[in-house]
Amino acid sequence: MRDEIHKTKKGHIIMKKNKSVMVFIEYTEESIAEVSLELVCKGKELAEKLQVPLEAIAVGFGANLRRELIKLGQYGCKSVYLIEDERLKHFTSVPYAKAVVETLQRVQPQIVLFGATTTGRDLAPRVASALKCGLTADCTDLQLGEHQIKGQTFHNTLLQIRPAFGGNIVATIVSPEHSPSMATVREGVMRINPPSGNEEHRAAIVDEKVCFDSSSDFPSEVIEIIKSERSVDLKQAKIIVAAGMGAASHEAMALIKELARVIGAEVAVSRPVVDAGILGHDHQVGQTGTTVRPTLYIACGISGQIQHRAGMAESKRIIAINRDPQAPIFSIAHYGIVGDVKDVIPKMIKAYKNK
Ligand SMILES: Cc1cc2nc3c(=O)[nH]c(=O)nc-3n(C[C@H](O)[C@H](O)[C@H](O)COP(=O)(O)OP(=O)(O)OC[C@H]3O[C@@H](n4cnc5c(N)ncnc54)[C@H](O)[C@@H]3O)c2cc1C
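ok -> structure tokens follow
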């Protein structure tokens, strides 16, 4: 395990024991949320660079909970701190925050990661506030690097990277003077590496005891969960045909849907198309929509502003159709077609049908 070396203004060296990287695991419907696996994989990368263990923390209750948590060992997680209680079966803010805060106070990791989900966005600020440490919300990347402030040099500081000022800049945020460094990370931006497949790679379960007061720690109760069905799962789509404002007319949208049908793709849109009420938010790609990584992304009449690119730039192949040759989307497209969507898409449909 490598120690962290800080150099003060007067040149004094401060040694700090490096502690673990920890991921908060979301467990719903008897399985671990995808975003938690994404964070475990990113956490492993950070932990390896820091030469510290990767750990996790889980709060909840369920027949398969322990079995699922043990499997995190196959993703490189050494141990999982588990707060298990029947009353914690469903997420509610107060007892979950208490469970996480008490455990973090005891374990003292140096980095804690949460998914930027409804649960993570509720829980992480409560935990950060209780621990009086920084929190960066909605990160799209995490790196380790050096940071200098007030004559001190902090090595291996967590660089928390996210779009800021409406997505016009990409900010790198650090909180080196307070531990742990905490971040929520957007779903879908980190890759899930395949598990080792070796059942002997088991995460050790560490049972944490938290004393809950039945009345004050449980001010709210989950009575019923009503799920809204997603109309599309863009994260899983291998091919996406996406429409922007240049393809938002009734006629162009019909062509987009037909092209998607012919090539077995899902339909996505840019934000203004959602704002115009043409398709629902489930279809939106971008900074405030879904992050996608399909094999093929066909951007039709999309200018390619940074907020849209943030959600699709990692696509394996990008075809852009736009009548403006200067459109920013062409800067990241592998194939660019300058033309009107109403001329180009029928030709593509015909070509794919003939194939
Ligand atoms: C905080 C914040 C978050 C945001 N989040 C998102 C997000 O998640 N996702 C997102 O998409 N946007 C998001 N935006 C909006 C973003 O800044 C852009 O405004 C948006 O992406 C533009 O959408 P568009 O490309 O469809 O439309 P436009 O910018 O209007 O571009 C239309 C394009 O179509 C081309 N065109 C027009 N007619 C035709 C035609 N007949 N044939 C071919 N091409 C044609 C034009 O040349 C142009 O390039 C966000 C903005 C902010 C401030």
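The chain has two domains: 14-207, 234-354.
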